[in-house]
UniProtKB/TrEMBL annotation:
Residues 4-156 form the N-acetyltransferase domain. PANTHER family: AMINOALKYLPHOSPHONATE N-ACETYLTRANSFERASE-RELATED (PTHR43877:SF2), AMINOALKYLPHOSPHONATE N-ACETYLTRANSFERASE-RELATED-RELATED (PTHR43877). It comes from Mumia zhuanghuii. It holds the Pfam family Acetyltransf_1. It comes from the Bacteria. One of its GO terms (molecular function) is acyltransferase activity, transferring groups other than amino-acyl groups. Keywords: Acyltransferase, Transferase. This is GNAT family N-acetyltransferase. Signal peptide: none annotated.
Length: 167
């Protein structure tokens, strides 16, 4: 499959990031979020947001092919998605460790993220990675012209004192 490389995203990665994001988002969120959010998440919206958020994105590639990414928003791990071919391979864990390191290196006490309540697969993944579920909250997902409230769980990751080897 090739050696795993984690690197900052560049302009040539936009299409791969948008595709992985669109496909992964549909898999994780359809049936778990309000219809208003589903309606706002058009293919064009993923293309545009991938382009706009490139500077906050780290991609994972295997053999030169982008198979996943993580996006940060200050101390929030805002998005982490993998191509179906990379699920269960350790790529997600590697991206999460990189995100943890970037958040703490930027001076934040530790990372956090929101997971839709119905996305049990993601919740299990973060728990296996040592993240703590602090419970449910109303997350305001941005959409053109405002936001949509999504029932989520807030997970917190390790702070600087918990830094992991290999991150």
């Amino acid at each position: 499959m090739g050696q795993l490389e984690l690197r900052p995203a560049g302009p040539t990665d936009v299409d791969a990031v948008a595709r992985i994001w669109r496909d992964g988002w549909a898999h994780a969120h359809l049936g778990n979020v309000p219809d208003a959010l589903v309606d706002a998440r058009t293919p064009e919206s993923f293309d545009q947001r991938a382009r706009e958020r490139l500077g906050n994105t780290t991609v994972a590639s295997l053999g030169g092919t982008v198979v996943g990414f993580v996006m940060l928003d200050r101390d929030q791990v805002d998005h982490l998605y993998l191509d179906l071919s990379a699920r269960g391979s350790g790529v997600g864990a590697a991206l999460l460790r990189r995100a943890e390191r970037l958040v703490t290196a930027a001076g934040h006490p530790g990372p956090w993220l929101a997971v839709a309540t119905g996305n049990t697969g993601a919740r299990r993944f973060y728990e296996r990675q040592g993240w703590v579920d602090e419970g449910r909250f109303d997350h305001e997902a941005p959409v053109p012209g405002g936001s949509v409230v999504v029932d989520c769980h807030r997970f917190v990751g390790p702070g600087p004192e918990d830094a992991r080897v290999g991150a």
